[in-house]
Design goal:
Blueprint: E1 11-18, E2 22-24, H1 42-49, E3 50-56, H2 57-62, E4 78-81, E5 94-97, H3 101-112, E6 116-119, H4 122-131, E7 136-142, E8 150-151
Parallel strand pairs: 1-6, 1-7, 3-4, 3-6, 4-5
Antiparallel strand pairs: 2-8
């Protein structure tokens, strides 16, 4: 059984993902998660262990409301990494950064004040993974096949990234899931 998330100052790449690997539908749509249920204390667990959030500009432009993070259960500093901070709409609690991903992590971890920095961007997560700056990947697999959208990890021609499962007897073992079409 997987232990609850802890606030250990980790860089945590965190998403709900479709069974076929998408974290958002076309145009960053999230309506595909409607009707998905999660374990009872999930939102509280992440709201209490998150110190800051790092996201990308495309995701921010699609959902420019920091009050929507964890349904409003979390409040804290949000950092949006962008090449064009000058055309971003100023928003309370949101800092637009124009730097490399490693520097954005340094800034975010400092603001997280010992809690976790959650990465809500597939592109930034991929960059941080390549830099060795992701401490954990935390996924909640929704029982849906999207077929199109924004993948969690997309790196055509790149080398496979080996992972180790946490809270498992065999950290290299495959995870079995079983679903039926509705």
């Amino acid at each position: 059984m997987l232990e609850p998330q802890t606030a250990d100052g980790k860089v945590l790449w965190h998403f709900t993902m479709s069974l076929d690997g998408f974290v958002a539908g076309p145009g960053h749509s999230m309506d595909w998660m409607t009707g998905t249920t999660f374990r009872p204390d999930l939102i509280d667990e992440y709201a209490t262990t998150t110190g800051a959030v790092l996201g990308g500009r495309d995701g921010w432009d699609a959902y420019p409301d920091p009050g929507g993070i964890y349904g409003g259960a979390w409040k804290g500093p949000v950092f949006v990494l962008t090449h064009h901070p000058e055309d971003a709409t100023p928003t309370d609690g949101v800092t637009f950064l124009n730097c490399d991903a490693g520097e954005a992590v340094r800034i975010g971890l400092e603001a997280a004040n010992g809690k976790n920095l959650e990465v809500f961007s597939p592109d930034i997560g991929r960059q941080l993974l390549a830099l060795g700056l992701i401490d954990e990947i935390d996924l909640h697999i929704a029982p849906v096949l999207l077929g199109d959208g924004i993948r969690l990890y997309d790196n055509p021609g790149g080398a496979p990234i080996q992972l180790r499962g946490l809270g498992r007897e065999d950290p290299r073992g495959a995870i079995d899931v079983r679903f039926r079409p509705v």
